[in-house]
Amino acid sequence: MFPGAFIFIGLVEQEEVPLLIGLGIGLLIQLVIIPVSNLAFEKYFGMVGQIKNLSHKVEVGSANLSFLKSQINPHFLFNALNTLYGTALMEKAERTADGIQKLGDMMRFMIHENQQDKIPLKREIEYVNNYLDLQMLRFENEENLSVDFKLPSTECEGHIAPMLLIPFVENAFKHGISTKNKSWIKINLRCMKGTVHLDLVNSIHPKKITDDPKDESGIGLDNVRKRLEHYYPGKYSLSTISNESEYFVHFSLQLD
To answer: What sections of the protein cross the membrane (predicted)?
Structure first.
């Protein structure tokens, strides 16, 4: 054989080596890596499915537990209030019985009406009225406190987002009452042609050094402003003014 033939065969063999390596890698990918990868992905997605299923069961279980709690707790509390109400009547403590009845009505409002987007305006005013009656029962012996309120619920029609009026009243009792100094709260609610108007004035007392700045009146009404912007954009007016001795609130709302 001629020497050139060996050179030609060597060249052919050298050219076949990369080809054989490429074929080997291709077979390795097709026969080993791809099946293993598919198996790994199948196990991964299977585990994801199991996790989702378990999460769903946990969520359902939590929801059922929360629902059960929501049914048990109010049921127990209302039964307890009814028992106290009956006991108060038997003991001829009519004012105590009346207070228990109003508290029960407020609890029903918080559990039922408070979960709705809109409620009858009369129910909102009834809640405020019950709150005021309980506060008057609480502070009946305070000689330094004067509370004057007018809530004509009979002529107020329409619907309103729940818990929009009560924060103003709560704010007045929270910041306007002092057991040592003369205090006053004046509330006037009016309903006219699809609108509701609330004017409120309460006394102001010097803050203690230990008072939390978060308890200031303006901060307490921020949530009300946000809810008004959400439910009644462009349909309300809210202004507050204060001086050294009094805090004024004027609130007007155009009902739907």
So the answer is: none
Q: Which of 203, 120, 185 is nearest to 156 (CA)?
A: 120
Whether 24 and 141 map to the same domain: the answer is no
Q: In sequence order, what are the residues at sequence separation of 6 or more whose Cβ sits closer than 8 angstroms to the Cβ of residue 210?
A: none
Token pair belonging to 149: 């309120």
What's the whole-model pTM score?
0.64
Specify the 3-state DSSP secondary structure of 42: helix
Beta strand segments in 48-194, E? 119-120, 145-150, 159-160, 183-192
Highest mean pLDDT among 3-17, 56-70, 176-190, 208-222: 176-190
Task: Give the tens place of pLDDT for each residue, 227-252.
Answer: 999 999 999 999 999 998 999 999 99
Query: Cα-flanking dihedrals φ and ψ of residue 158, to 5°?
Result: 100, -175
Same-domain status, 223 and 136: yes
User: What is the four-CA torsion angle of 82, 87, 92, 98, rounded to 10 degrees?
Assistant: -20
Say which residue, 151 or 49, is predicted with more confidence.
151
Selection from 205, 253, 245 nearest residue 227 by Cα:
253
Task: Decide if 168 contacts 221 (C-beta within 8 A).
Answer: yes
Whether residue 110 is contained in a domain is answered as no
**Interatomic CA distance for residues 40 and 232, integer angstroms:** 54
> What's the CA gap between 64 and 70, in Å, rounded?
10
Domain count, the chain: 2
Distance (Å, whole) CA 6 – CA 76:
102
